[in-house]
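Hey, quick one: can you model this chain's 3D structure?
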Amino acid sequence: MHAQFTDSDTGDSVLSEHEHNHGELPAGAQVELERLAECLGGLHDHATGRILDELDADIEVGYEDGTVLVGITLGYPCASQEDDWRERIREACMPILRGGPLGEADLQFELFFEIPATEGGDVPEPLRGVKNIVAVASGKGGVGKSTTAVNLALALAAEGASVGLLDADIYGPSLPTMLGTEGVRPQVRDNKLFLPVQAHGLKTMSLGYLLTEDTPAVWRGPMASGALNQILTQTLWCDDGDELDYLIVDMPPGTGDIQLTLAQKAHLAGAVIVTTPQDLALVDAIKGVEMFRKVSVPVLGIVENMALHTCSHCGHSEAVFGSGGGEKIAADYDTGLLGRLPLAMAIREGTDRGLPSVIAEPNSAIAQSYGEIARRAAAEIWLSAEDGAGPEIEVG
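Sure thing. Here's the predicted structure for all 396 residues.
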């Protein structure tokens, strides 16, 4: 999403795709608009931890019909952050405007985002419209990886992105249960392409849609890799020329054939590693980080799950599985801690009934935590694509 107030080709002022004519600027107003743009460049972006001057963020400042128009374009989905940005923009701008030639002007702000695509080599045709593929992985089972993957996908969609979700856990597909789509079978187009199953605004695919409920996937490594390749490359993720901003892939635990197959078949934008603070889980999480590094996949960050349990009766909080492990891995391997999630019954209950936390309780603290993790992970992809480019500033 991106609209410029000053079109470089026509010179017309545009806002949200509607054309306007510039009102005549009061004396001294151009200098004031430039001061505003300089001030805005120093504002801090929470997801990246950087100021706008250090990012490839478009900063647009204009004036029209008694209104100062401000627009900022970021490289990750951020729809929920517009009110926060608007308040901070107003706080930054009003001291400059007050008493100046534009002191009586209204201030109008819009937040936009443009999601870059990860550059890669040749990919199968059904994946060509997918901008970014993100693996959600863990070194061992039982750490909440699938729950994190589902809520991460839903959180990105809630921020305004178009999102797909692939259940690559061939041996234990859980996505249909978590999304409430058990018993659904994907349609087939032209006898060769699966159509994704729509669930809560996501395009989804899982081997669980193709097997009966009681049929186990008893396969050797090559068969499992072949099954993953089929549901990955024979699913019509993008139709009629549309694009998918993110395809989240819920990986099986461990570091085996499935992980290598995905790295070979698709150019990954990055991986999110899920762990608990428990020492044993941390050891396995480190193996996951090392594996992705060996196949040249950037690790976007660590999610520390089950970090804290709060008693529903007395309110006492306790780090049941220890503390600080995820942060230590992030520091040791030069990546970030994307967020911590509690050991909470609501998370488990939501996925059991097909309504993950982001859908069931969108305003809860848990859903807000998933949203923050989603924005930070997406922001890391943006930084990888644009690091060092600097902001683009337009004043007019």
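One thing worth noting: Confidence is low (pLDDT under 50) at residues 1-22.
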